[in-house]
User: What shape does this take?
Amino acid sequence: MISQQHRAHRASYNGSTPGSCPGSGLLLTASSEDSELPASDSLMTSAELTHSGAVPLASRSRALYKVLCFVLLALQGAVLDFYLIAFTDLSWCSWIATDLVVLSGWAIFFIKNARNKRERACGFHQKSSALGSGLGEFTYAYLAWLIYVIACTPKVVLVVETSILELLTLKVPCGVTGFKGAVLLSAPLLFCLIGAVTEDSTGATRHRAHASFLSTCLDLLDSFMLVELLLRNELPVPPLRYTVLCAFFLALFAPVIWLHELTAFELSCRSLCARFCTGLLVNAPVLTVRCFQVYAHGEPVSVFLFKNVFMLTCRALEVMEQCVMARGVRKLAASNPAHFSHGVSENDMCPHGYVNTLAVNQS
Assistant: This one.
């Protein structure tokens, strides 16, 4: 039973005009033993949150992160374009057009992402539909990062594998340091992308995104330490140079995998295996190069060597554990579907995709 106060509150809240989107107010159901609830324990609805100013503050924060995304994209593109236009005979129009395509792609991504959030809030996407089952707050984020990686990779490769580096040292004030700073702008850009699309600042999805972001930053730092040796021409062997470059760009590509995972409600074994393969392709080549440096050239053992071994072991254990758990939950749900669907309906799902019903089942 529901207390009279909660009945009146829910009736007044649902009495909106026809065609309007339902709110994300919380519905608390319990057994007859918990029929009366004190007024102090009532939950705050979305209307009260809006009046309190929490929702507008989150919207302004996301808008700020979106602006920072475009600023970082334009800054990194402008610096790399300056190097390529000033020291090569390639057409400057092609590089500027590439940056415009990336900026336009990110603008379209933010528009489609905002539209998807409004549709989910209005209940247009149902979990039973094929399109709505994989739509979350990180929808289309992996496509935006994929466009960025495809556009950024050839620019960096051209600078590293040509004589532009030597010309940067002689003719540009910041020299190679400016090039390093421009390349490493990818990390704050990824952080701003996460902040621009995250709805709940304390939700589980945000924590998963930040954990994956820190892992990606660690891989980028690890591989970039070897890229610095390449920039100083301390890796003259071509296979080692190409191995280091491939490891760095694979680390830059890794967010495409876990951003795609964050769009889905269910984490499958296929996505876990893809994530493990990405970590393997980043850490294994870098570990090989570091071992070669230690045994062939007598270089001191780097702490990142132990990091590579540790991350490979952890990734292997993680994928085995998660696959076993995913299969176990899937079998349990198939054998007893009523246990997982009891007391939960489509109307009890809030716009963020979480269940807002507390079902007390007493046998």
Notes: The longest helix spans residues 54-87.
